[in-house]
Specification:
The chain is of the alpha/beta class. The protein is 30% helix and 22% strand. The protein contains 7 helices and 7 strands. Strands 1, 2, 3, 4, 5, 6 and 7 form a 7-stranded mixed β-sheet that branches. Helix 3 packs antiparallel against helix 4.
Amino acid sequence: METIRQPSGPLVLASSSPRRKQLLTAMGLSFIVAIPHVDESVGEYEAPKDVARRLCVAKARAVSALHADGLIIAADTVVALDGEILGKPLDAEHATDMLTRLRNRQHEVHTGLAVLDATKHRLRQEVVTTIVHMRNYNDDEIGHFVTGGNPFDKAGAYAIQHDTFHPVASIIGCYTNVVGLPVCRLFVFLRDWKVKVPIAPPSQCLMADVLCGWPRNGA
């Protein structure tokens, strides 16, 4: 595995997502936030994984133009049902339709992760996929969730970590990937690039020990 020097510039999160900020903070990292401005339209025949990969890299490069000495972390999460991308809902009706379609079914969550050393123009990227099976929630639960304004900034119109709706029955793969940032893979990227991560991936990431090879107690 190629390694690089620890960057002298800041660690930069290329995202306005509060969930991604929470996950980086949980790793004990100090970082600044920069919002990337990229075209997120999807090509007619573009596969969900390809969209996630392309957009995470585009976000990292967009922010690196403003932080030329930084180490940029960018991610893009795509929810796909039967190969169809379910983006952020446009309105309450759209959100209700998405949640109804997802109910009691299996779908995929693909998160593209990019880490870019802007100083040396080195990039590492990967798409992490989690299989998600939704529980058989009822129409009233959907209604309460939508009325509360919860779905509108979330791909697929839901949040796995929502503390009352609890839409997900089970997953295969990384939990934090569904939240929006696969901390297991990010940990590996940063470790390989000699960046000190004070806290190993959070305990809620059920695959942390397998994917990172790192004990949960950080020893």
